[in-house]
Amino acid sequence: MAKWLVKSEPDECGIDDFAADPQSVIPWDGVRNYQARNFLRQMAEGDEVFLYHSSCRHIGVAGIVTVVGAPYPDTAQFDPHSPYFDPKSSPEDPRWTAVDMRYVGTLPSLVSLATLKSAPELADLPLVNKGSRLSVMPVREPEWQAILRLAE
DNA sequence: GCCAACGTTGGC
DNA sequence: GCCAACGTTGGC
Q: What domain count does chain A have?
């Protein structure tokens, strides 16, 4: 069972939106970057995912969600009224992928970006590298454990 | 609001 | 295939 980290702006969809209805399944769509998309496609039912809050007041890893079902074509890419519309994509050959996520838990405390950067175990995590804009990335087991420990 | 770093586009 | 221009991301 693989582990991941995804970025989101809590104004759009943060851990509180998941926690508001723990049973609900929220589509993770709108990813329009090939590297991030390729990671989305590798996700599978039951995978666990850190939710990272970006571009906000309290930046950092806030909680955990889980992958529900299998990745599927992001429907927004076909919708001309969606901000995520991609005229170059077609239902016959979908370019972008979405997955469904469900709430698992909120961390006891937010692990701030500064804390993440100061942890030697996390040096290889794309998130902490300067200028990294990757919004979906794999997290290795030792990295996962390190972040959990920092949240205690 | 600023701006550095990045990915993508498009002309050549 | 190169690379300049552009739009976006995201921390500060």
A: 1
A75 touches strand B (CB under 7 A): no
**A 82-141: CB within 7 Å of strand C:** 113-114, 133-135
Q: Is the C-beta atom of A131 closer than 7 angstroms to strand B?
A: yes
* For the segment 23-62 of chain A, residues whose CB is within 7 A of strand C: 32, 54-55, 59
**Distance from residue A99's CA to nucleotide B5's C1', rounded to whole Å:** 28
Q: What is the SS3 assignment for A102-140?
A: EEEEEEEEEEEHHHHHHCHHHCCCHHHCCCCCCCEEECC
Q: Which residue has 């995804």 as its token pair?
A: A6
**CATH number of the domain enclosing A36:** 3.10.590.10
Checking if the pLDDT of A93 tops 90, the result is no
CB A17 within 8 A of CB A26: yes
Tens of pLDDT, residues A46-87:
999 999 999 999 999 999 999 999 999 999 898 888 888 888
Domain membership of residue A91 as a residue range:
3-150
Q: pLDDT tens for residues A15-40?
A: 999 999 999 999 999 999 999 999 99
